[in-house]
Amino acid sequence: MRLCVIGPSRFPISEPFAGGLEAHTHALVSALTARGHEITLFAAAGSDPDLRVEFLDVPVFEMSGAARRDVGSPPEQWMAEHHAYLSLMLDLAESGHRKYDAVLNTSIHHLPIAMSRLLQVPLVTTLHTPPVGWIESAIRVRGERTRFIAVSAHTRDAWSGLVDSTAILNGVDTRRWQQGPGGGPAIWFGRIVPEKGTALAIHAAKRAGTALDLAGPIYDHAYFDAEVRPHLGKDIRYLGHLDHAALRRAVQGASAALVSPRWDEPYGLVAAEALAAGTPVAAFERGALPEILTRDCGRLAPADDVEALAAALREAAALSRDAARQRAETFCSHERMVDEYEALLLEAAQVVAA
Question: Which of 196, 277, 341, 350 has the least C-beta neighbours within 10 A?
Answer without folding.
Answer: 350
